[in-house]
Write a structure and sequence with these properties.
The chain has eleven helices and two strands. The chain has 265 residues and is mostly helical. It has two domains: 64 residues, Arc Repressor Mutant, subunit A; 137 residues, Four Helix Bundle (Hemerythrin (Met), subunit A), CATH 1.20.120. The chain has a two-stranded antiparallel ribbon with strand order 1-2. A hairpin with a 3-residue loop joins strand 1 and strand 2. Helix 5 packs across helix 7 and helix 6 packs antiparallel against helix 10. The longest helix has 22 residues. 31% of the residues are buried.
Length: 265
């Protein structure tokens, strides 16, 4: 009986302790919210700090991407994302065929990149993982309606490219048509958010250097290979075609600056 009473007392005492804690909460500790930083932002922060301290004077050319990557122990794509972020913020200027130069910020308003902005090249790698599987799923369960939607998107892309217009909306429609075939709302929203992040300032600026009508014609051919594999119900081929498309996209955005065109400000 004593043991039973002791057990009952413990069960009653625990809510009482919780009730007292609720009435008298412990004093708040002045902690700040911890936010994980994207790698390119950490690189940009270091370079921004060095510029601010005068390590790189106004008008100076920054070390080459390869050298910065070696000194920082990171990949060249991450360095490129950081440099583009700094250009968007007005710290540096990319001069195609010459290098990246420090700008005079004495009369420039700061335009910080949002901390939630994804790095374009990192995003393409993430898309490779997810969209390779959505292409395979489309090949397995997609309907004629889904394949027709892919074909219409490709034709829209080709029509815009023929008019020397970058076919961004057709590209979005194509990738959305593929994921729609899965019937999975979470995957649909994920792929849509991936694609819509292209509208961010870093991706837009990077695209200004490396996206051309010629590069988009290559992408259209890659889309046709994906569509054909889906139509053939070949999941492995569809996955491989999507992986090849994303790998080629990554390569196009990672090309030498000597192959870049002058971006619009």
């Amino acid at each position: 009986m004593a043991a039973a009473q002791c057990g009952s007392y413990s069960e009653l005492a625990l809510p009482l302790v919780q009730f007292r804690t609720t009435l008298n909460p412990p004093p708040a500790v002045p902690l700040q919210t911890v936010e994980p930083q994207r790698l390119y932002r950490q690189i940009a922060d270091q370079l921004r700090g060095l510029i601010g301290k005068g390590e790189f004077a106004v008008g100076a050319r920054l070390p080459a991407e390869r050298d910065l990557a070696q000194q920082l122990g990171v990949s060249r794509p991450s360095v490129r994302e950081a440099l583009i972020a700094l250009e968007v913020e007005g710290w540096v200027e990319v001069r195609t065929g010459s290098g990246v130069y420090v700008l005079d910020r004495s009369h420039r308003a700061s335009k910080p990149v949002a901390p939630t902005e994804w790095g374009p090249l990192e995003l393409i790698r993430a898309r490779r993982v997810i969209e390779g599987e959505t292409a395979a799923i489309a090949a397995a369960v997609g309907t004629r309606k889904d394949i027709d939607a892919m074909s219409r998107a490709i034709e829209a892309m080709r029509g815009l490219a023929d008019r020397e217009i970058l076919p961004l909306e057709g590209d979005r429609a194509f990738h959305v048509a593929i994921v729609n075939a899965s019937g999975n709302a979470v995957l649909v929203e994920t792929v849509q958010s991936f694609w819509d992040s292209r509208n961010g300032p870093i991706f837009t600026r990077l695209g200004g250097y490396f996206e051309t009508v010629a590069s988009w014609r290559s992408a259209i051919a890659e889309h046709e290979a994906i569509r054909d594999a889906v139509a053939a119900r070949d999941a492995e081929a569809a996955r491989a075609a999507m992986h090849a498309h994303m790998d080629n996209s990554h390569q196009r955005f990672s090309a030498s600056w000597r192959r870049a065109r002058k971006a619009s400000s």
